[in-house]
Every structure is written in structure tokens, then in C-alpha cells.
Amino acid sequence: xxxxxxxxxxFKKNRACFILILLVLAxxxxxxxxxxxxxxxxxxxxxxxxxxxxxxxxxxxxSGAMMATSLEYxxxxxxxxxxxxxxxSFDGDYKEFSYYSKYNFTDNFYAELVSHNNYSDKxxxxxxxxNKHTSPxxxxxxxxxxxxxxxxxxxxxxxxxFGGAGDYENDADGSENNSYSNYVELSYRLFQNKxxxxxxxxxxxxxxxxxxTFYSEKANLINLGMSLKHKIKILSxxxxxxxxxxxxxxxxxxxxxxxxxxx
Length: 263
Description:
By secondary structure, the protein is mostly beta strands. The protein has helices spanning 15-32, 37-41; strands at residues 44-51, 54-56, 59-62, 66-74, 80-89, 95-104, 109-117, 137-146, 153-163, 168-170, 176-178, 182-192, 196-206, 220-234, 237-248, 253-261. Helix content is 9%, strand content 52%. The longest helix is centred in the first third of the chain and has 18 residues, at 15-32.
């Protein structure tokens, strides 16, 4: 690391992050202030999923079998969600510990803030740092909107604000431009009954400030595919299972993810 290197993400320059977090907590406190401690405790849930691999935004995060877990709080009115998400491959090569918050403004519209922390190649990760040179953390803000039940077209837009996943280009004077990489996806439900649902989707990446993005070498379509959600019965228990196939036109990569929810 250069001798004249200075940390980019000081508290002062990170104040936008703290403002976002405070806003999320304020929304959450508004929905929980009338609840008793007992009722709040009832709103916590845990989950465990098994996958043959892990896909995300047009890429294979890990090609090995893995386990995904979550610990989540949801307010009584189901508008505010606060959670922790952990992923780990069985061979130990992939490790992730992320935290997220979500606010459902309506049944069809939500906003979420996700702090991704894939520390697979870090021996001593700093889970509280967002330094782009040393930390795997990056902060993502996203909006999701579904037109209606009769027109089941969902629009999803996510923007990387800063952190280890930020993609930067150097100007002639040596200054760095953050790409603020955007991922936009359209998905449409083709079919649904009480046991099954089929969706198709298309996602692309672009930046308003740079050519290269976190997801792609240039603005491009990077995620085409379909997903099937189904319920299977094993002995006397029913388990949700999903299969997702995707193709990335830029990297020429494709994969099929199978995901079963144990609880």
C-alpha cells in the first residue's frame, strides 16, 4: 500500500451511511413503539436453506453446495423488517455475513438497505469497515415495485453506494470516480397455482458516471433466466423448493441453482 495512502471512508465522508441507517431505524421504531416486549419477541424468525450453489445478480457467487441462514425481525404490521443473513459453502471456500433492513410501503412497493459482506478471501475481515481498499463490505440500496396482481410485472433497481465492491475509474488528475453501479431487473410471473409458480426475468447493469460497473465491463444485459417455485412433500412435511436457471450474455456463464427451504 502506498506510503501516502489515506483512508477514503472517514466518519465524515460516511455520514450518508449513518443518515440512511438512522432513517431505517426511525421507520422501524415507528412501527414497534406500541408493541410490548412479549409481542416483539414473537416477531423473530429463523430460516435454513440448502443450495447446490449460490447465484446473485448474474453471477455465480459460489459453485459449491452451501447453507444459507437468516435471523429476522418483522414488525406486527409486516411493514418493517430487520435481519441478518449468513452463507457458507460446505468446503469452507465461501463465507458471507450480511445485514439488511426493509420497509414495505404497500403490498406492491418496498425499499431495502443491504450491507453485503462476502469475506471468503479475507483472513481477518473488519465487518464494520467500508474502506474500498481493505474491506469486503459494500452497501446496496434497492427498490422493488410490482404493478399489480393482474399485471405481475416486478421492477427491481439496486445501486451500490460505496464500500469494497465499488468500482472506480481514475481521471487524468489521479482522482477516482465511483461508478455507483446499478442493477435493474424486470421479472414476470407466467404461471401460478397453490403449489407452483414460474417466473422469467432479465437484468442489466450500468453506471451514470463510468463505463465499467461492479457487474460488467460496460453497460450490458447480464442476467437472463427463469425460476420455478414448488412445494414438495416428504413424509408428512411440506418443503418449499425452487430452481433458478440463468445465462449471462456478457460472461457467457450459465448455471442452475436448486434451493430447498428446511424451515
